[in-house]
Amino acid sequence: MTPAIVRAAAAAFLVVLSVGAPLRADDTPWPIPEPKPGGLPADVTSKQNAVIGGDTLSYTASVEAVPLSDPKGERIAEVVVTSYTLNREDPATRPITYAFNGGPGAASAYLNFGALGPRRVQFGNQGNTPSDPPPILRDNTESWLAFTDLVFVDPVGTGYSRSLGSDETQRNFWSVDGDIDALARVVAKHLAAKNRLISPVYLAGESYGGFRVPRVARALQTKEGVGVRGLIAISPVLDFGLRQAEQTSPIPWVNLLPSMAATARERKGPVTRADLADVESYATGQYLADLLRGPRDPEAVDRIVARVSELTGLDPAFVRQLGGRIDIHSFVRELDRPKGLVGSLYDANVTDFDPRPHAARMTFDDPILDGSRAPLTSAAVDFYARDMGYRVDRRYELLNPEVSRKWRWGDRQSPPEAVDALREALALDPKIRMLVAHGATDLVTPYMESKMVLDQLPAFGDPGRVALKVYPGGHMFYTRDGSRAAFEKDARALYQATGR
Q: Which of 45, 175, 338, 493 stands 20 to 30 A from 53 (CA)?
């Protein structure tokens, strides 16, 4: 074997030693159950350790199926949750956080093994590939386990979670309202089963998971009788209506420009939110005004072309072709087209080769979304099967395209939004605080969208109750060590501010 392979094998062996076999409360090994074909095995629990924030923490990891039933009491779904509970504190009063990813159709592995959980795998940065580095979980020194217990929820159709009912039942889970009701029910049932109803409850969600967070909080308040202390939305879409009418509305272009400018500026050195103040000012000022004047005003077009070319690094002739309205797919292809590279929509500074550099139409795998599928899936399956003894006889759905394809968005004339739920949750409970976190170079959910939404909220007694933070990086900014550390610090401050 080559030295690199030997080192990887040794590292994997050390991981096995540090985690060990799943243990009962009396430290005897759990028997590894044989799953039924296509079914889920029995719930499992394991005592583990990780070095987090310079402290060795002992915790209990669990993988469980939360059953959901219809009004007749018949089981219609099994939702798999993965939880980490610190052993040194009273679980009844310690904060507990439920985390969801997005898609819709994404499992919670992104947040579990990328940002918040006690162990993480490297992915999503320039130079990371589907095969390198090896998908080995290592201690996450920025894990939130230091200040909250964690429960990662895989909605129906993601991870190992599944619908057991009819096609109509499954379609209900794969809808905006049905999804929210199901997740709120999972949280309430899990809290009750674990005797955690008196614990401070928090919700965290990434991307579409960030859209879920205010609406799940509202459903918990009003339907399940559970109060929520804090909300953390990571790269969220809070109002899909801001993305509509690109042909006539200037708003989508205004919200995209700062993230494109951040991408171009980062190539010359580190970029902070403060470094983008001039771009935000231009985007919401002269750029907005000139877009409203329209393409038949040649002076407005000339101003747009000159400034947008300067900010984005794109060729002025190309910017003029698009009328200064740069869509994200054109941006990630054109920025590095002379080099035969394409960027990721999730962070355009992470690039791969363009498989068809001379083709007129853009068809390429996303360097981050598609490039992270192998390491995250392998790490997750290895964790469940080898570390936890939770072996399932079907594919682990990291990102299930069937869910996204069949998702029911509701009335097309009324785009889904989570802003009303957020307003109502904040108004009803003055103790709730929210952190909205974005990466500066994320084109999929640009941070200016959230800024636009949050700026329109009433103060509700304290304008600081809802904070927007922007970190270096893209949609999954937490793959960068510095941004993950800064995010952990800001999240910890929210928990401290909302503590009893």
A: 45
- In the block, residue with structure tokens 């682990």: 396
The DSSP bridge pattern shows strands 75-86 and 55-69 to be antiparallel
What mean pLDDT is predicted for residues 27-43? 58
Element (H, E) at 323: none
| 335 within some domain | no
In the predicted structure, residue 418 carries a pLDDT above the cut 70: yes
**Strand 341-344 with 347-353, pairing:** antiparallel
**pLDDT at residue number 246:** 79
In a domain, 36, yes or no: yes
Residue 356 counted as domain residue? no
Decide if pLDDT at 89 tops 80. Answer: no
pLDDT value at residue 97 = 98
- DSSP letter for 276, please: G
Which residue type sits at 141? Answer: T
Distance CA 435, CA 438 (A): 10
Segment 171-199, tens digit of pLDDT = 899 999 999 999 999 999 999 999 999 99
Are residues 230 and 142 located together in one domain of the fold? yes
Neighbours of 339 (CB within 10 A): 11
Are 73 and 167 members of one domain?
Answer: yes
Gap between the Cα atoms of 95 and 151, Å rounded: 11
What gap in Å lies between CA 151 and CA 145, rounded to an integer?
10
Q: Is position 349 within any domain? A: no
pTM: 0.90
Asked if residue 101 has pLDDT above 70, the reply is: yes
Contact 157, 403 (CB under 8 A): yes
Q: How many CB atoms lie within 10 A of CB 458?
A: 9
Name which residue leads in pLDDT, 290 or 165: 290
Q: Is the pLDDT of residue 36 over 50?
A: no
235-294 per-position pLDDT tens digit = 999 999 998 877 889 999 999 999 999 999 999 999 999 999 999 999 999 999 999 999
Residues 163 and 269 in one domain: no
Question: Please, are residues 62 and 82 in contact by the beta-carbon 8 Å criterion?
Answer: yes
At residue 202, the 3 state secondary structure works out as strand
Range of the domain at 425: 3-237+373-497
Pick the last residue of a domain from 290, 310, 326. Answer: 326
- The CB density around residue 18, as the number of other CB atoms within 10 Å, is 16
Rounded distance between C-alpha atoms, residue 253 and residue 279, angstroms: 13
Residues 132 and 416: their CA atoms lie apart, in Å, by: 38
Residue type, 464: G
**142 and 267 fall within a common domain:** no
Averaged pLDDT, 68-78: 91
Do 112 and 36 lie in one domain? The reply is: yes
Among 374, 384, 368, residue whose Cα is nearest residue 62: 384
Instruction: Give the helix/strand (H/E) hosting 155.
Output: none
Nearest CA to 406 among 144, 171, 132, 139?
Answer: 171
